[in-house]
Amino acid sequence: MAKDTTANAPKKPGRIAQMREVFTQSRTLDPQIAWWMLGAFVVTMAVALAIGFAFGWPLYAAFLGLPLAALAATIVMSRRAERAAYRRLEGQPGAAGAALTSLRGGWFTSNDPVAVEAARSGTLNDAALVYRAVGRPGVVLVAEGPEARAVKLLAAERKKIERVASGVPVTTYRVGTGDAEGVVEIRKLTSKVQRMRPVLSKEEVVAVNKRLRALGGV
What is the pTM of this model? Predict the structure, then answer.
């Protein structure tokens, strides 16, 4: 007779518990986050009450404004936490991979680099790394590390992909600062890739990803 393990399965935390956990983690990255959330809540409630008094429905406006104010505070928490997380990633090995794994909408990504050129020290702190994402806009390669070696490694990886997946668009970026073409800050990387125009079907994305996975990685 099969044993029922449903009763012993760990319960998922409720929505309030999840929000509390997110807030606690976010506050360690951004100590000012509570004040920003409070400000968003107060401003939203003030606007709702002002509209309510203007139309003679203050209680009704307060009733509607309360969930809107809570939503505004939650949005502020999310945005501030995201920015703080990216600030923490800046300059860290693997930052590009971590940013790419947050892509939504059918992207194939990995925390592991697909190409590495280690420095003489043998550590990742001075290594050039290339990460790959495959989605409907095509293949996106993102390099990080010392500029000269990162650019060279990025070009080599692009040629490799163009041989294996001929005709598939390949877009390259290098994590850094400045206005040079193809250079993007780590905090802007996810949104920049997310806004790319889709050109492949979902079936084509799966096929391209399988083909590239056959190349192996690091």
Answer: 0.66
